[in-house]
Amino acid sequence: MDTKKQIYLKASEMFLHHGYDRTPMSQIAKEVGISKAGLYHHHPCKESLLFDVIKYFNEKNFIPTCKEAIKISDPEKRLLFFFKKFIETMYADSSARILMHEANKLEPHHFDEVKKSWQMAYGLLKDAISEMQASGKVKKINSSYAAFAAIGMCSWMFYWIDYSRKDSPEELVETFLEIFMRGIIK
Q1: Cβ contacts of 20 within 8 Å, gap of 6 or more
Q2: Residues near 10 by Cβ (< 8 Å), separated by ≥ 6?
Q3: Residue 174's pLDDT band (boundaries 50, 70, 90)?
């Protein structure tokens, strides 16, 4: 495994367990097995490291899910696909919580870049719901609010889910889909 990936994974784990503010760069360097200067060679500051951790997760998981979903022409299938993949990703990787919880610590230019991926997901969901409304499948609801509700429902699961248990992500997907789809489908 290359050094940058080791740094991202270890920093992600430490930010998750101790919080961004309580994780010193020196401890990250020690855990990775490099000098503090070596860590600063890759990341000029801790905020840069946080941004790269979030960017790594987004590029590995979140953005490919959005891009794959966008290719699905049927809006209901697109919505279901996104829900399933997004929940499975969040379920499989508890470090995803860093995306939501610590992103507000980013500098504005970094936060704006992260927001672009969030906006991609929001647009995907809003458009799918609007298309389903146009076809008569969905109740007359505010598609923006519905998209935010879907994202919120999925994004907050890692604050209450017990990752130490071996629950089925499929059951969680089915439950969320049942709740959400019953709420919008006529």
Answers
A1: 46, 50, 98, 102, 105
A2: 28, 31, 32
A3: confident
Query: What is the C-alpha to C-alpha distance for residues 42 and 177, in angstroms, rounded to an integer?
Result: 41
- In order of 32, 34, 58, the CA distances from 6 in angstroms are 7, 10, 17
Please report, as a single letter, which amino acid is at residue 111. Answer: F
Residue with tokens 């010193």: 24
Instruction: Please give the class, per CATH, of domain 53-184.
Output: mainly alpha
Give the 3-state secondary structure of 73-122. Answer: CCHHHHHHHHHHHHHHHHHHCHHHHHHHHCHHHCCHHHHHHHHHHHHHHH
pLDDT of res. 102 = 86
Do residues 110 and 99 touch, judged by C-beta distance below 8 A? no
SS3 at position 42: helix
Give the residue extent of every domain in the chain. 53-184
Q: How far apart are CA 161 and CA 88, in angstroms?
A: 13
> In sequence order, what are the residues at sequence separation of 6 or more whose Cβ sits closer than 8 angstroms to the Cβ of residue 4?
42, 52
Q: Is the whole model's pTM more than 0.85, yes or no? A: no
Do residues 150 and 124 make contact, with C-beta atoms less than 8 angstroms apart? no
Residue type, 170: E
For residues 85 and 69, give the distance between their C-alpha atoms in angstroms, rounded to a whole number: 9
